[in-house]
Design a protein that fits this description.
By secondary structure, the protein is mainly β. The chain is built from three helices and 34 strands. The two termini are about 30 Å apart. The model is unreliable at about 1-20 (pLDDT under 50).
């Protein structure tokens, strides 16, 4: 049940100023937080953002909302860059990608749209079920952003102008009408990392695969196919005898900080421990050129036959060589990254997890957990369709610390506060160590989107890509003067 004071706070926070935005931050305030360059904040997808954001438990009541009409549905998360050259001026900007591949730069202070990139061929798929849920990623120079479109292409766009860079776009699917770039893009060691799955209904043929693309040139460095993995390049889906094994979790490709190795989770599909890797956690080399390890649940065949996709979420890195993997079956598994399957290496071995327990409500997990380190403790926050819970790592075991009956998409921690978007229409703010609700901010209805919080601002796109709409909104909350 919601705290009673949250009702009043929701009213205060729902002040809308679409034509007269309330400004960037409180007058004279110092911006705290800085860039948020990708989904999950960092390449490890920790969803643990800046230690200070300018937003605190004591000033939540000063948040005011502006609604920015996008001209598309961004069923994903925005990114943010502070003080960059955009549209001929130095600005703070949010960048989002819509479900039909438009990428849009929004002035974070005024809410005005600075530029909008529309991919070539947009009219061919707009209004259809050929969509993307991908979040963009910013390059390290802060001069380019990378985005995906539903035609199986990756784009490199000038942050200053929104124009496509020379040598781009890059095709990473030979059958985009079946293979969906649904995951958020990542970037590591000079490589843009993307992955493919299938569309709603899983109509074959398609194969989940990881594409590693040189961020500078657009050259495809490696392709790793989760089915027919002995083939090391883009393949026509119909040429592989097996279909599915989608890589479709919100986090997409997760990067291990120390080694640079890549982690992905696959969905329903054949598994043989040799060339086909359905319903598995897979560790790849940093350039996606080699499979290093697998963890495959003992009931993989049952998951496959019962539409129990393990890959509905991706591994969450806890540190100390540990990770957590969820799935549609409502289970969380603690894994040892040094020996994923208990023995190490990749092969026809199942099991090897350290611990298994239920998701907060026992529902399937379709979101990305958040990992937060504070006071020498490691916290894991998980939201499903009905509840949100916090767990604390003690040695090599996770224990539940608190639970609330409030649904959520992918939670984020920023400035010492936990933010959880309930797609029913509100953004809840909690004290992360106790689960005490501090605020409930009115927001639009949504699907998979999640917020970012930095520099005294919160940004959350709302809407559902499966509605196939060409309209949508970005909600921006700022601290009033």
């Amino acid at each position: 049940m919601r705290a009673r004071g949250a009702v009043l706070l929701a009213v205060l926070a729902s002040v809308v100023a679409a034509t007269a935005p309330p400004g960037g931050t409180a007058a004279g305030a110092t911006k705290l937080g800085g860039d948020w360059t990708r989904f999950g904040y960092d390449a490890a997808r920790s969803s643990s953002g800046p230690a200070q954001t300018g937003i605190t438990a004591s000033n939540l009541s000063r948040l005011r909302r502006q609604r920015v009409v996008l001209g598309g549905t961004a069923d994903s998360s925005p990114i943010y860059l502070r003080g960059v050259l955009v549209g001929g001026a130095t600005r703070d900007v949010f960048v989002v990608t819509t479900s039909y591949g438009k990428t849009i730069a929004i002035d974070a202070t005024t809410g005005s749209i600075v530029w909008r990139f529309t991919p070539s061929g947009y009219s061919k798929w707009v209004g259809t079920d050929q969509i993307t849920n991908s979040s963009p990623v910013a390059g390290p120079s802060r001069k380019f952003v990378y985005s995906a479109s539903p035609d199986g292409k990756l784009h490199k766009l000038s942050l200053a102008t929104g124009r496509e860079a020379s040598g781009w776009p890059v095709t990473i699917s030979l059958r985009p009408s079946r293979e969906k770039i649904g995951v958020s893009l990542n970037l590591s060691r000079g490589l843009v990392l993307a992955a493919t799955g299938g569309y709603y209904g899983d109509t074959p043929p398609y194969q989940g695969h990881v594409a590693a693309v040189a961020a500078a040139s657009g050259r495809i460095v490696n392709v790793w196919n989760s089915l027919c993995s002995d083939r090391r390049s883009l393949i026509q889906p119909s040429s592989c005898p097996e279909s599915d094994s989608a890589i479709w979790a919100r986090s997409g490709v997760v990067v291990e900080p120390s080694s640079g190795n890549l982690l992905v989770a696959t969905g329903n599909g054949k598994w043989d421990g040799e060339h086909d890797w359905g319903d598995s956690v897979l560790e790849l080399s940093p350039n996606a050129g080699k499979l290093l390890q697998n963890w495959t649940p003992r009931n993989q065949a049952e998951l496959d036959s019962g539409d129990g996709d393990l890959g509905s979420t991706a591994p969450a890195l806890l540190g100390s060589g540990l990770a957590v993997q969820g799935g549609k079956d409502g289970k969380l598994r603690l894994l040892d990254l040094t020996k994923l399957n208990g023995k190490g290496g990749a092969g026809p071995v199942t099991g090897g997890e350290l611990q298994t327990f239920s998701t907060p409500s026992g529902d399937g997990l379709f979101s990305a957990p958040a990992v937060w380190r504070s006071g020498g403790r490691t916290w894991l926050f998980v939201s499903d369709f009905s509840a949100t819970a916090a767990y604390v790592l003690n040695g090599r075991k996770l224990s539940e610390a608190w639970r609330v009956s409030s649904a959520g998409t992918s939670p984020v921690v920023a400035g010492g506060l936990l933010y959880v978007y309930d797609p029913g229409g509100h953004l809840d703010v909690y004290a992360p160590t106790t689960g005490k609700q501090l605020a409930s901010l009115d927001a639009g209805h949504g699907h998979w989107s999640s917020p970012i919080v930095t520099d005294g601002r919160i940004a959350l796109p709302v809407g559902n890509a499966n509605d196939h709409a060409t309209t949508g909104v970005l909600d921006i909350w700022r601290l009033a003067s």
